[in-house]
Amino acid sequence: MIALEKRPQPSAFWSYAAPLVAVILTMIFGAALFAALGKPPLEALSKIFWEPLFGEFSFFYLPQLLVKGAPLVAIALGLSLGFKAGIWNIGAEGQYIIGAICGAAVALAMYPSEARWLVFPAMLIAGAFGGFAWAMIPGILRVKFGTNEILVSLMLVYVAEQLLASMALGAMKNPEGMGFPGSRNMSQMDAATSWISQSNGMHWGVVIALIAVIFAYILFARHILGFQIKLAGQAPRAAAFSGVNPARLILFCLGTSGALAGIAGLTEVSGPAGIVSIDFNVGYGFTAIIVAFLGRLHPVGILLAGGLMALTYIGGDIAQSSLGLPGAAIQVFQGFLLFALLAVDVLTNYRVRLVQRGAA
Amino acid sequence: MTDTLMTLDGLTKAYPGVVANSDVSFEIGKGEVHALLGENGAGKSTLVKTIYGLVKPDSGTMTLEDTPFAPAEPRAARAAGIAMVFQHFSLFEALDVAENVALGMENPPPLRDLAQRIKEVSETYGLPLDPSRIVGDLSAGERQRVEIIRCLLQDPKVLIMDEPTSVLTPQEVEILFETLRKLKAEGTAILYISHKLEEIRSLCDNATILRLGQVVATCDPRQTSAREMAELMVGGTLHVPEREAKVDGDVLMQINGLNAKSPAEFGTSLKDITLEIRAGDVIGIGGVAGNGQDELLGALSGEITTAAGQIFFGGRDIGHLPPDARRTLGICAAPEERMGHAAAPDMSLTENAALTARKRKGLTKNGFLNWGKARGFAEEVIERFDVRTPGPGNAARSLSGGNLQKFVIGREILQDPQVLVVNQPTWGVDASAAAAIRQALLDLAAKGAAVIVISQDLDELMEISDSFAALNEGRLSKPRPARGLTVEEIGLMLGGAHDMEVAHVD
User: Fold this and answer.
1) What is the pLDDT of residues B458-483, one digit of tens each?
2) Do B212 and B306 reside in the same domain of the chain?
């Protein structure tokens, strides 16, 4: 019989090895899955993990990696604050949408102004504020009325999606768009675009995500607030005893994650996406949850995990188009990554022991 | 002695890094009350868990009524006639007594029949209990009766009791003992675990003393003095704290008609508490668990904030201040629950040092933590309070209960507080460490600080307090000088026996 025995100390080895083992397990599982679907398993894996980085067309895929990775990293960093403290913001997707709408509203209202020094910073502030305000709804409801922030933030995603559709078809529709849904293309406005270098995949969202990694790292390594967030998540009573104000902590964590998601949405809509359209959101807010846990809620881990996740997105697309793998198989593959991580994670705090059954 | 009911032969159980039981053998006869003595970590819990089927021994055998006995799980042990009352109750507060009893049974009868049987058993054994009452409303003594009746319904051959009197008033202890003596007269064997040596002397027929997992002595407690038994447990001589000459200091803190609602659903709200806390004073606050101890500590530490005009420190109203602000003023506290309240189990000792000491020890600057300084403070606590751990980088949960308690108390004392509030400072701590903690509290008071000791251990309170007050259902009695109080007087201050009567032994 196999028994789990709690370690007196979390294992330092396993806390680093667990993500690697999880990735390896996922590859084995993926190979089996692809083989069962009648596709060459090793080739599929190499399409997913090798082709985007080192293949013939990597000059095209590498910038894509930045574009896909930046919003994942930015959102996941924000979420990790709350997750560490036991505050579950599941609605980053909604905050991402509202951030994009608010930022776009500023850009479109100021069109055709060419004052980039004014327009783009104003958009950033509006985007951050939009995400912040949307996250404050579950935050204030939880603090004042004790509602469950998981449900409220999740349901607000669907509200945000309806709002997005209404904007794309109504208030923000391009007046020169010949009746097609969608706003003016902001990526082509010099004053409003978030692109820095489109051919390299560099936009302001990438820069902000990297700065956020550094800030989050310092917050957790040295600042009392990072310590209190950790404490509140691990031992809520000890946190109260230490002097942490739970209501303020909830609002800070939700507000920060909302603002980061809002900025991610704004830099996406004014760059890679370009227009406010019905299908603007592609699930970054949800995938970021996986990224946050895959990165063990550690800023550097999240940076690496965001890169890995972006890789499976791009590599998955390649495998779909060149091998005809169904899209659902790629999603199962990504889902298994989180599953494997959570399973292997047990080894950080527990050791496996083989116990003999029966004999006493 | 009567016939042998149960024998343990050569029981050995090792955990990684520690041998919990090593070649433990003894016998229990029918109708015998057998005491199991030992310091914390001596292996008593492992031994009773082995008997109860929760732990499988590495080697050794047991027999029950001359047949081999090796329970694979508690269910098998219960079926064989072993019953156990744990130190920590496993009851659902929101359910009533009968429902709680039914949850612990293999095949519970219909609730109405069960309620009838609970009534019968409780009357037979002098443990009055209304089966329809909600457990959340019961006192600790009444909750224990639920556990005991749950066991008695199984008609046990051996009843194991782990520290049963730690939550009872002296009167309630007498009632429990009458019940146990009645069970003994019926032929039930009782394995009785306790630290309280006087109790064991009055109740038990035989005692087995464990130290570091081994049987070091067996004795007849009626023939052996408490001091001899204590020295057998510790394996040395006991150091008794000394009290320095008492000075009548200035009033540091004043509590005027404090009312506070408990944040916990079945907690006890504080009602109209008035207390004057003077420099150099050690105030002992006794009371049965669950009578507002946690809430009183919370209201003083700042975890529970109160309305204006109820708590003053140096003439300043501090009822609204959170814990950090009160620490800055000089009020430190150490709650009863070490894991998860006084300390974060998964965090290192360095982080746990920063948990309360950051203001008074200047561990932060502009919100940035100075980890080097925090580590230095943790090392100081470890060294000064003899905390046994490889170093401050270790997680709090890797420490034994007593060691973590030394760390927690040391962390507060070394912050040099003006008022220190501690709840159960030596609970679960072995005798020599408990003596060291008490001495440290007395030294702090001798330096001019006020110390409030909330404890359920009356011997401890009598040993170190200058004045004594009792908490009962959230009310605090008027403090009286501790010297010269009798056990009966204290018992009455604690609220008597909660309307119980002594068992009628026929």
Assistant:
1) 778 888 899 999 888 888 988 888 87
2) no
Identify the weakest region by mean pLDDT among A6-10, A321-325, B365-369: A6-10
B55 and B204 in a single domain? The answer is: yes
Regarding whether B131 and B60 lie in a shared domain, the answer is yes
* Degrees to nearest 5, angle at CA B48 with B46 and B54: 70
CB contact under 8 A, A234 and B337: no
Do A360 and B356 count as a contact with CB atoms less than 8 A apart? no
Q: What pLDDT was estimated at residue B17?
A: 63
| Optimal mutation site among B12, B49, B56, B300, interface A, most CBs of chain A within 10 A | B56
B461 and B453 Cβ atoms separated by less than 8 Å:
yes
Using a CB-CB distance cutoff of 8 angstroms, which residues of chain B are in contact with residue A242? 323-324, 355-356
Domain span at B440: 251-493
B498 falls within a domain: no
Q: Residue B333: closest CA among chain A residues belongs to which residue?
A: A241
DSSP H/E element including B254: strand B251-260
* Mean per-residue pLDDT, B77-81: 89
The yes-or-no verdict on residue B253 having pLDDT over 60 is: yes
Q: Does the residue A225 lie in any domain?
A: yes
ipTM above 0.90, yes or no: no
Same domain, B299 and B182: no
B379-394 pLDDT tens trace: 999 999 988 888 899 9
Count of residues in chain B: 506
Contact yes or no for B341 and A222 at CB 8 A: no
Specify if A91 maps to a domain.
Answer: yes
In chain B, the number of structural domains is 2
Total domains in the fold of chain A = 1
> Smallest CA–CA separation between B449 and chain A, in Å?
21
pLDDT at B450 over 90: yes
Contact A269, A84 (CB under 8 A): no
Q: Is B301 helix (H, G, I), strand (E, B) or coil?
A: helix
Query: Min CA distance, B121 vs chain A (Å)?
Result: 35
| Residues in Cβ contact with A218 at an 8 Å cutoff, skipping those fewer than 6 apart | none
- Tens digit of each residue's pLDDT (9 = 90 or more) over B144-173: 889 888 888 888 999 999 888 877 777 788
What is the domain range of residue A237? 40-324
Read off the pLDDT band of A67 (50, 70, 90): very high
- CATH number of the structural domain spanning residue B89: 3.40.50.300
What whole-number percentage of chain B has pLDDT above 70? 94
% of chain B residues with pLDDT over 90: 40
A222 touches chain B (CB under 8 A): yes
Beta-carbon separation of A227 and B354 below 8 A: yes
The answer to the question of residue B240 being in a domain is: no
CB atoms within 10 A of CB B242: 10
Mean pLDDT of chain A: 91
Tokens of A212: 């956020």
Instruction: Give a yes or no: residue A279 inside a domain.
Output: yes
Do B270 and B323 belong to one domain? yes
- pLDDT (mean) for A13-24: 85
Residues of A in Cβ contact (< 8 Å) with B369 = 222-224, 227
A8 in contact with B, Cβ within 8 Å: yes
Is B199 domain-assigned?
yes
Same domain, B26 and B146: yes
**Does residue B497 surpass a pLDDT of 70?**
no
Residues of chain A contacting residue B324, judged by C-beta atoms under 8 Å apart: 242-243
